[in-house]
Amino acid sequence: MEPSSDRQAQLTKLAESHEVVVALRKHIEEIVEGNAFKASHRSGQFLKYIVEQAITGRFESLKERVIGTELFGRHPSYDTGQDAIVRVAASDVRRRLLQHYDRYCTESEFRITIPQGSYIPEILCRYAPGVKASGSASSPGNAEFSSVGLPTYENEIQIAVDEVRGPAAPAMGIQTPPSRKRFNRRRLFLVFLALPLLAAYAIFWKRSFLTDFAHASARTFAPASVLPWSAFFEFPKSTHLITSDPDIFWIQKITGNPISVSDYANRVYLPAHNTLSPELKQICLNSLRGDKSASVDIPIAMNIENLALSRSRHLDVHTARDVQFSDLKTDDNLIFLGSPRSDPWSSLFNDQLDLQFVVSKGTIDEIIYNVHPKKGEQLIYAQTAKGGATGESFAIVAFVRNPDQDGQVLLLAGLNAEGTLAAGKLVTDTSRWSTALQQCGISPHGPIKHFEMLLRVKMMANTPNESDLVTCHILSEPSPR
Fold it and tell me: Is residue 150 part of a domain?
């Protein structure tokens, strides 16, 4: 992602063409009146505001506090940490823009995105030859548009990593990793040789752990009258659970290419640049056959289904690759398993969180970035138990609202699969879950309060032994429709 100063310069150049500005304003009206935005007047006003400020050069107005004051009528001294209306609105607009372009991309002369961590839009223009916007050459036949990635907090993360890991630590931030060297035949042979061994090793330790998890949870289900289950299994709303996508996680590991939610929604799973050998490309394509769920998702889904049955309700389970944007625009309740690396859909709710998943520079490894750290809290949380080592990992349990919808959303996500499993185990354990809610100052029996918990998962030889609650954040409520 380019620095905001470069984006400002490019937007200024774009605005020099009266013809382009007229066409852009017409384009904005078409978006706002289209299906993706017609249900939310607030989101339409937000999009119009930021684009108009950008093309008229008023970049100082594109800051959270100014937007909250000028667009949403907040007091100039309002607490942006407690009132997240601007962040929530931006997240919803990002989602609606993706829905719009998913349908009309080939017909659009423009492509507008709002980079994570900024309110200065990126505007790609194919309208007038010679006009550049956001670093992409504009020409009538150019259909290459940028996509939405994870949040950008590069400077803050770099400082935190230096403090935690020392000067020799690898730099971290948000960046697409450099192109990888082509795999030769010998390396491909080693990959084929290693995969069965890794699978056998994983089965060896997971079998007993997953069995223990299923048996323990069956004995200690959190009653469906406890939050968030009391909200999830209330008639007449349905509850949908979306499992993670192990193939997408594996492809990102092999190619070194993070997959954004935009690419995932458009079924773009491999990098557009031609860096993959034919053999490796075929391996990736073969892995995409079928529609799979991660093994750790199975006991979580089974136990949540039992909770639903205790209230005479049913849980609808979907694989991540079977979901479309339109499916998420619903008043039903949603449960997502896995972090954005293994379930890109979960990144749509990242803006509502204080503890957000971001990607390390030069890799596709995730860390958890603490956007609003409390006293004594760390800025970043990164796993130390890698490659079968003994150490710790982290996971979140987040209960939020689906922006501009009436449904609730539960996110169970770890920095690794074992972290997600630990989060699922916690929320279906009667005594531990009630205790955790009370530690956060939340009554297990309501009223509804949105929150986020951070769990520390202790690992030994890549096996999760136990988890404990690190911190809890009460989240600001999105404004009603």
Answer: no
Question: Which residue type, as a one-letter code, is found at position 382?
Answer: A
**170 falls within a domain:** no
Q: Are residues 189 and 138 in the same domain?
A: no
- Domain of residue 384, residue span: 185-474
| Alpha-carbon 247 to chain mean position | 17
Per DSSP, helices labelled H in 220-334 are 229-232, 246-255, 261-265, 278-287, 297-310, 325-328
Residue 255 DSSP SS3: helix
What's the pLDDT score for residue 462?
58
User: 154 lies in a domain?
Assistant: no
Largest CA distance in the chain: 68
- Provide the terminal-to-terminal Cα distance of the chain, rounded to the nearest Å: 32
**Looking at the predicted structure, is the pLDDT value of residue 188 above 50?**
no
* 255 band by pLDDT with thresholds 50, 70 and 90: confident
Q: Are 440 and 401 in contact (CB under 8 A)?
A: no
- Domain stop point among 142, 165, 199: 142
* 88-102 pLDDT, tens digit each: 888 889 888 887 877
Q: Residue 305 falls within a domain, yes or no?
A: yes
Percent of the chain residues topping a pLDDT of 90: 29
pLDDT at position 400 is 94
C-alpha 6: how far from chain center: 26
Q: Report whether 125 contacts 20 (CB < 8 A).
A: yes
Cβ distance 421 to 465 under 8 Å?
no
* Residue 240: strand, helix, or coil: strand
Same domain, yes or no: 93 and 226: no
Mean pLDDT of 124-140: 45
Beta strands 391-401 and 122-125, pairing class: unpaired
Going from the C-alpha of 158 to that of each of 162, 170, 385, the distances in angstroms are 6, 9, 21
Per-residue confidence band for 387, with pLDDT thresholds at 50, 70 and 90: low
CA pseudo-torsion sign 256, 259, 263, 265: positive
Is residue 61 helix, strand or coil? helix
Helices (H), 220-288: 229-232, 246-255, 261-265, 278-287
Q: Looking at the 3D structure of the chain, how many domains does it have?
A: 2
Asked whether the whole model's pTM tops 0.85, one would answer no
Hey, what are 481's tokens?
A: 């429709």
Rounded Cα distance between 292 and 326, Å, is 21
Of the three residues 107, 142, 177, the one that is the final residue of a domain is: 142
The first and second tokens of residue 328, run together, are 């998420």
Q: What are phi and psi of 112, to 5 degrees?
A: -110, 130
Structure tokens at 166: 């020392």
> β-pairing, 315-319 with 239-243?
parallel
Other beta carbons within 10 angstroms of residue 47's beta carbon come to: 25
